[in-house]
Specification:
Largest sheet: 3 strands, antiparallel
Number of helices: 4
Strand order of the largest sheet: 1-2-3
Strand content: 5-15%
Low-confidence stretches: none
Mean pLDDT: 79
Structural class: mainly alpha
Length: 108
């Protein structure tokens, strides 16, 4: 039972955790992924096509398949990746607050 209570306390939403989640999530938008380009024989396309998001990309920018030979991720994957990213960054924010509280209580 102690483990369940500790886990509930660890995952319990707090303002500090949500603020850190927003900060980390906003910073993750700065990371750019280069999406793969479809190889066309004799044609070189340097048009940018990138995805944003960390650890998984959830926003795509750039050309579509018809215009310049790129194939961005399908939309349903981007929705799933967005949900996974939010969960990931929330767990990281919980870990940061947990560590901060442990260090703060240890120094008292």
């Amino acid at each position: 039972m102690l483990i369940v209570e500790s886990l509930k306390q660890f995952l319990k939403p707090e303002l500090r955790k949500v603020l850190i989640l927003i900060i980390f999530f906003s910073l993750s938008l700065l990371y750019k992924w280069d999406l793969p380009r479809l190889m066309n024989i004799g044609i070189v396309n340097d048009a940018p096509n990138i995805a944003r998001g960390l650890p998984l990309p959830f926003i795509t920018e750039g050309c579509n398949f018809v215009e310049c030979g790129y194939f961005p991720l399908p939309f349903p994957y981007l929705q799933i990746f967005l949900i996974i990213d939010i969960i990931f960054w929330y767990l990281i924010s919980c870990l940061v607050i947990f560590t901060w509280d442990k260090i703060k209580n240890k120094n008292k």
